[in-house]
Amino acid sequence: MPALTTGSLICVTGAAGFMGMHVVKTSLEAGLRVRALVRTEAKKIYVEEAFKDLTGLEVVVIPDVLAAGALKEVMKGVEGIVDLAVTLDPSATKEQMFQGALDGIDGITSSLIEAGTGKRIVHMSSYGAVGNAFDTSKKVHLTEADWDTELEPLCEAQGEDTNFYIRYATAKLIAEKAFWKFFEKHKDVPFDGVSIVPTFTLGPLLHEAQVADGNIVGSILFIQPWLQGKATAEDLATRYSTVVDVRDVALACVKALTMEEAGGERFILADKPIWGNDIAQAMEKVLPQIKGNPPSNPDPAFKQALLENATIWDGSKVTRVLGLQYRDWHESFKDAAKSFYDKIPIELELLAVKSSSQGLKRTGSPNRGRVRNKMSGFGNSSYACVSKVLHINLLWLPIVSALTCLRSLSLKREFVQVVTSALVSKAKATPLKIPDQVDLSSVIER
């Protein structure tokens, strides 16, 4: 199937997300024209501002890409698609998530058929579709030929009690299966497909990420305790799958669109397996000023024991076929940390400050008198959540407390976010300084 060339128009769904922003940026820099789909007007403004110095971008607001006919107009003239949109609603039922995965594939493929100009779809899958990333019971070597066989039976057995992340991984598995089944069934369509299967994705944050919204998502959530000095000794043996840089994922998407030999292929993106001990070593080199984390274990025997039953993700195919060279994961970690502290200069903590509006909890509403921050995953029912800003003057605390009470009173969320954001902007401390060049030569490589 002919590949896309400079000036070709592509459509990127989920363009405002962690991965989407990098795909948009890399595609524009490669000379492709990009029609970026976002869910809200605010995200449209953010994406346009982020890439105002690049040419070829059009941002379109589609509140629900799963709605019937939602993609009909935006697919006109499109030659390639990078499908990144995904539902991350913890309140969605298992059936809703799985049906949404199927509807997403159907909507993308049917709209591109109707457009009549399509050449290639790049589908973003998940390493959960290949195998269990965190299984330490045996040593496993996984390639593009492998498919997970445990997720669907597990979801069936556990029903609605299934953990959200298991449901999410299963939905991604179902979506990729449907993607390839489409091409098996419709061999006469004028376009082909490529699936990208990234493992643990790290790198700089380009998407809008603010404490007020609590929308820090992606793999950085899993290393956040380390960045905040809250990791424990037990975390040293925690498996973080295999790392790949988000910029390498974006480049792989562009190569998948523009290289003819990528058509019909599945690519795992994975470089080196890492554990909490590796992150501890990186923190000691990159961010020694962050206190509270356990020291790394330099004992080679400790590292060897971790490797004994490691799942090995073979990401060599993308190098052989597409010529992609992986960034060193230390660079990914350093850049992720730099952007994290740049975007998230404050930390929210429960200070057990009695709320003056405790009577609200008698209303019977489960949300009254409680503030929940999705980034940190905490909440309380009878205490107000107070922002503790690094080096902030304590005179700010009554203002923050008042804002949390406003949320408890269920006033407009947008108003509270605007005021909270203004407060954060006013009170935030100087961001932590991370040197551009860090000597990581003493970090033991496997």
From TrEMBL:
One of its GO terms (molecular function) is oxidoreductase activity, acting on the CH-OH group of donors, NAD or NADP as acceptor. Coiled coil: none annotated. The keyword Manganese does not apply. Keywords: Oxidoreductase. Gene3D superfamilies: NAD(P)-binding Rossmann-like Domain. Residues 10-265 form the NAD-dependent epimerase/dehydratase domain. SUPFAM superfamilies: NAD(P)-binding Rossmann-fold domains. It comes from the Eukaryota. Belongs to the NAD(P)-dependent epimerase/dehydratase family. Dihydroflavonol-4-reductase subfamily. This is NAD-dependent epimerase/dehydratase domain-containing protein. It comes from Naematelia encephala. The lineage of its organism: Eukaryota, Fungi, Dikarya, Basidiomycota, Agaricomycotina.
